[in-house]
Amino acid sequence: MKDFRGRAEARLPSDATVEDRLAFLNDASERIGTTLDLEQTCIEVVDVAVPRLADASGLMVQEGLITDAEFPGHPTDSGALVRRLATATAVTNPDDWDVAFPAGELTVYPPYLPQAQAMATAKTVFFPRLDQAVAEENARAFGRPVIAKVLSGSSFLVTPLRARGIVLGFLVLVRQSSSEPFQETDAALAEELAKRTATCIDNARLFHKERRTALTLQSSLLPAPPHRRPGLEVAHRYLPAGDLAEVGGDWYDVISLPRDRTALVVGDVMGHGVGAAATMGQVRTAALTLAMLDLDPSETLYQLDRVVHRLHPDHIATCAYATYDPATGVLAVASAGHVPPVLMPADGPPVPLPIAPGPPLGVGGGERVRVCETVMKPGATLALYTDGLVETRDRGIDVGIGVLCSLLGGPRRDLEHLCDAITELRRQAGERDDVALLLARAAGA
Prior knowledge:
alpha+beta, Beta-Lactamase, Phosphatase 2c, domain 1, 7-stranded mixed beta sheet, 5-stranded antiparallel beta sheet, ATP-binding, ATP binding, protein serine/threonine phosphatase activity, GAF, protein-serine/threonine phosphatase
């Protein structure tokens, strides 16, 4: 609840000029909808309304919009479950109003109350002076006698919030008995304010719906946390580029192979957002399927290139594919246009693996890439990652890989803490690219 006692904003009179009313609405347009946060938008509305239009204000929104970001199923609904998202007062007894109309209250208004009538008819309901009987009806409906105390003799106005012909909730404006009562001109101004408010609320709803859809998509595409693999400890991170979609084309995977071996995969479909994520899901599924055939890394990437070229001839992707055999310690790695993995031996400094990368996936070159083989001794750590981790606007990939090597070569840490340290550096840089990071450490040290 906002208390505006002491804020020096003059009441807009009922006989205000057209210019004054337009100035008020222009001010409202600038102050409402500054973010795509639904609750903040509602707070901004009552901030505009009090005290310019009213002594007190409250804004109720259908609960389905808040919890599910879904549009109401009916154009009007007097029995809808609504939540009071914001209140504001410019009165001498704000505590009474706070008790009478608590912010956050979830309720259904009885059909005989003005609030329900506004939602049922999609029309403004107002009383130049609210008589004692209506005030007491409100009080009895919620079991709070203080409601009758603050509403008796007040001027009371309820206007529905409509977007796309659907009532999303309503805005309540109240003037105390000592204030000038609402006139028809005030109701018209309140309706225009409610119209602009409803548009902002709908925009916030669409934002949250799209964001939730994107998060659901991402969670379905990225693998679940891998089970501990024989002879191998694994940790991973994914950082999205966008605040809205939170999805992109980067992925990682840890795949069980025959004879207790493990495949480690990191890839990057060019682009960001839902489109890149959808392509990534197909490429990742294809890589997972090919891994089940237990091909060597070169053959796996060769076949994956053919799949990507057929599925998405206009898309390209990079990928690093590695297999690890705990019985021999042999690590075999191949790359299709991907940044080089970094290997940190248990007894030496981290170094990028000397891989000769082939063309990116989707180019369709028809060539098999070379496989780099080395031995991961107990305690050695392998870092697979995407270029968003090491490349920034201010430095090239080689410099970024050097920074990564410095972090890997620092004091020995468990892989989860090491992942956090590496990705935190990227967050601080404020770069806008997806990042996938996969760390694997050979057991035994």
